[in-house]
Amino acid sequence: MKKLSEMTHEELLAFKNETEKQYLDFKSQGLHLDMSRGKPAPAQLDLTMPMLNVLSADDTLSTEKGLDCRNYGVLDGIPEAKQMFADVLGVKPENIIVYGNSSLAIMFDTITRAWTHGLLGSTPWSKLDKVKFLCPVPGYDRHFGITQYYGIEMINIPTDENGPDMDMVEKLVSEDASIKGIWCVPQYSNPTGVSYSDEVVKRFAALKPKAEDFRIFWDNAYCIHHLTDSPKCILNIFDECKKNGTENMVYEFMSTSKVSFPGAGVAVLAASVENVEYIKKGLGVSTIGFDKINQLRHIRFFKNAEGLKNHMKLHKNIIAPKFAVVIDQLEKNIAPLGIASWHNAEGGYFISFDAMKGCAKRIVSLCKEAGVVLTGAGATYPYGNDPDDSNIRIAPSYPTVEELTKAMELFCICIKLASAEKLLEK
Amino acid sequence: MKKLSEMTHEELLAFKNETEKQYLDFKSQGLHLDMSRGKPAPAQLDLTMPMLNVLSADDTLSTEKGLDCRNYGVLDGIPEAKQMFADVLGVKPENIIVYGNSSLAIMFDTITRAWTHGLLGSTPWSKLDKVKFLCPVPGYDRHFGITQYYGIEMINIPTDENGPDMDMVEKLVSEDASIKGIWCVPQYSNPTGVSYSDEVVKRFAALKPKAEDFRIFWDNAYCIHHLTDSPKCILNIFDECKKNGTENMVYEFMSTSKVSFPGAGVAVLAASVENVEYIKKGLGVSTIGFDKINQLRHIRFFKNAEGLKNHMKLHKNIIAPKFAVVIDQLEKNIAPLGIASWHNAEGGYFISFDAMKGCAKRIVSLCKEAGVVLTGAGATYPYGNDPDDSNIRIAPSYPTVEELTKAMELFCICIKLASAEKLLEK
Asked: Among A39, A46, B126, B185, which is least packed, fewest CB within 10 Å?
């Protein structure tokens, strides 16, 4: 195969016509597949079904210390759950609040509190003329959705294989007091799959922001979602913060949404004791407590941090072959043509794909017309605006290997077609 | 027994001395009892234990229409749950959002959204110079906690056996555009136990507030919590609103916290379709969805609205005798002395007790010193300030009948002692 950029006009036309035929052939097959979100496959959910049997009518629903999980009380989570998540994140139970089912809801709640009441005595963000957030791109659309909801100005930060551009981050936060936060998915980023290098984590912990109420939103959603047998975990940011006296600067988030059940899992926040105490004061106004029975269910099923991690190996066995399908097809069908790049993630839920500039929307639209729904082009950028119209988030987890293989064949055809169209425009 | 007010100084002194002896005797018994909150008793929680068996590893966790409750999706609740709660509240499923475990959290969330983003296009409350709420008193401390958190000025509204003083409510809301809401517990009020009369409900639905974004927070927490066999339910406020074209003025709330498990139940909001659509837009920024498996668990266990109501009869059998203990002891020990009044509730979780002016704090404090913790005096008023220092909320649900009997003996002694002290002051 020849690179598309090296083809003559006639060769390109012929390539386009041939690809178009393949596309129409696919379209006639009437596929129906939704790959828009990072949803676990039914086979993964089946792994957690035995959890439904760990609490039955004959069991005592009490914690080790005799707290009845059925009744009211306990704002910050049952001790066993706090311990388990503290162990996963490498902090102490006093640094943990166990919430309900959604880490997104925790992030929203945390920003809302800063918006209405400020942080540890600072001015509420709603009372400031301008509030800005740094957004490493490509990133997670639901993060951007929260900051956009509050009218917070989002500033794109480029990322590479080590994480965000820390020169830019350091410069911006040290100069501009209106920059109040940064969205980070430090391990197996959504969507790039990149894990932050040790240097990047150290530089985050050593930030000297102009705003005293600047916070790093460390969404460690995929911290135990490995796709290899010898995963390299990122540095523990709280350990690094301790060296710099910056423990108050970080909020860390994770959940079991993609470990147990999405929507019926348990989500947690980790933060300094000072932050935890402040948050609990506000949280106690809004609720008496979260679902302790579900916390207990998770504890009885997973036992501890080790149990959680072991369970993830079963997920890996289901997901890893799907990532392989994506990468194989791209390597085979697209790599020789020199029209795109992608990142082979070692964990998480996504493969980030970069088409030729100006092709992402067209590719997603072509796929959709042929029955395969991808994450919307642009969704990985604040305001849905990918300045290069290049990035597409591939979410391979939900379909079966057979469906995914079919979908990737179509995806590759759409890449070729959109790229040929673009080159012929010139 | 003679009324205290009719006693001579010497009689009163003797009465006080005698009561003091009884008190010291109780104190020496070293009681330990927390009656501060409306918590269901373990025996009530036991009623719901079979719910833990309705979903097991072998079951299909899908709705009737085949939606997999284990995975992401569905912001407003599974159809079966929406139908069940719509039937309980007498509305349509399109009027329902099923949330997570806490109706308090829904109320907080709803006020927060009004605070940061306004309602249906109105100015966010945070941008107004002044926001006020009407608070029928005595009322629920956690309601007042939310409005206090946002610095909303709370205005006391007196209540009687028919509900709030509607002359005052009508006058205030029609004149003052800064009044944005009112807290109501319309059936078996917390703490008075009063159910709003038909006329009061009709007058609420016919309110003509000056503020277009005025909302009635209709916390129907106890709508199915009857203590008699032939309960009288309040009018359906949405039916009345339809007659007045005021459907957008009401948010109704309920939960299964005291039906299934506190903290592991399901909470709902009912509102006009326009309000529901607006709320869902904001809600979708903060979460992908609530715990659908727990919603399904409730549906499989209770089946439908009828099932929920039938289950409440089992609760009644446990709670009603406790209410009887409270009333019996008050009738026997306090009524003849003419030093207090109370309301014999036909449902809900509380008995509202009014001591002589200036005695509530002293009574609660005396009880506490002798090992029985009551809801703090003043808690039933905004800012914790009962101008008469008179009201005490009695929460008889949690203790056993034996414990409660003991606690009420102590309570009556403390009432007598505090009253005698007060009369001797004069």
From this structure: A46
Residues of chain A contacting B261 with CB distance shorter than 8 Å: 70-71, 293
Indicate yes or no: CB of B150 within 8 angstroms of CB of A262: no
What integer best gives the mean pLDDT of chain B? 97
Overall number of domains in chain A: 2
SS3 call for A62? strand
Question: Does A66 contact B at CB distance below 8 Å?
Answer: no
Residue B32 and residue B83 share a domain: no
- CB A57 to CB B53 under 8 A? yes
What is the predicted pLDDT for the residue at A309? 96
Same structural domain, A279 and A374: no
Kindly determine whether residue A291 and residue B45, on different chains, have CB atoms separated by under 8 Å.
no
Tell me the mean pLDDT in the region A328-349: 96
Query: Are B70 and A45 within 8 A, CB to CB?
Result: yes
Q: Which DSSP symbol is given to A21?
A: H
Q: What is the ipTM of this complex?
A: 0.97
Residues 6+ apart with CB under 8 A from A231: A346, A347
Point out the domain boundary residue: A252, A273, A303. A303
Query: Could you tell me if A250 and A367 lie in one domain?
Result: no
Cβ separation A68–B55 shorter than 8 A: no
Give the H or E element holding residue A96: strand A96-98
Q: What is the DSSP string of A115-160?
A: HHH-STTPPPGGGSS--EEEEEES--HHHHHHHHHTT-EEEEEEEE
A63 at interface of B, judged by CB pairs closer than 8 A: no
A119, with CB counted inside 10 A (0-12, 13-18, 19+), is buried
CA nearest to B300, candidates B54, B60, B84, B61: B54
Give the CATH number, domain containing residue B337.
3.90.1150.10
Amino acid B379: pLDDT: 96
Return the residue of B nearest to A263 by Cα.
Answer: B291
Q: Which of B58, B129, B141, B261 to mutate to test the interface with A (most CBs of A within 10 A)?
A: B261
Q: Which of B42, B108, B291 sits opposite A101 (nearest CB)?
A: B291
| Predicted local distance difference test score (pLDDT) of residue A263 | 86
Residues of chain B with pLDDT below 50 are: none
pLDDT for B358: 98
Residues B283 and B320 in one domain: no
Q: Give the percent of chain B with pLDDT over 70.
A: 100
- The answer to the question of residue A50 being in a domain is no
Whether B283 is in a domain gets the answer yes
Separation of alpha carbons A106 and B266, rounded Å: 19
* Closest to B218 in 3D by CA, of B187, B253, B194, B190: B253
Q: Inter-chain contact A286–B146, Cβ cutoff 8 Å?
A: yes
| pLDDT for res A229 | 92
Domain that holds residue B314: 4-45+310-425
- Residue burial B128-157, b: 16+ Cβ < 10 Å; e: rest: beebbbbbbbbbbbbbbbbbbbbebebbbb
Q: How close A128 gets to chain B, by Cα (Å)? A: 12
Residue A421 lies in a domain: yes
Q: Which one of A57, A116, A282 has the shortest CB-CB distance to B50?
A: A57
Residue B62 sits at the chain A interface (C-beta within 8 Å): no
**B277 and B335 belong to one structural domain:** no
Check if A53 contacts B (Cβ < 8 Å).
Answer: yes
End position of a domain, from candidates B256, B286, B303: B303
Closest-CA residue of chain A to B124: A126
Indicate if B40 and B171 belong to the same structural domain. no
Residue A34: pLDDT over 90:
no
Which tokens is B45 given? Answer: 């929680």
Same domain, B280 and B363: no
Q: With respect to residue B361, please indicate whether it lies within any of the assigned structural domains.
A: yes
Look at B71 and A40 and tell me if their CB atoms are within 8 Å: yes
Residue A68's closest chain B neighbor by CA? B42
Query: Are residue B249 and residue B329 in the same domain, yes or no?
Result: no
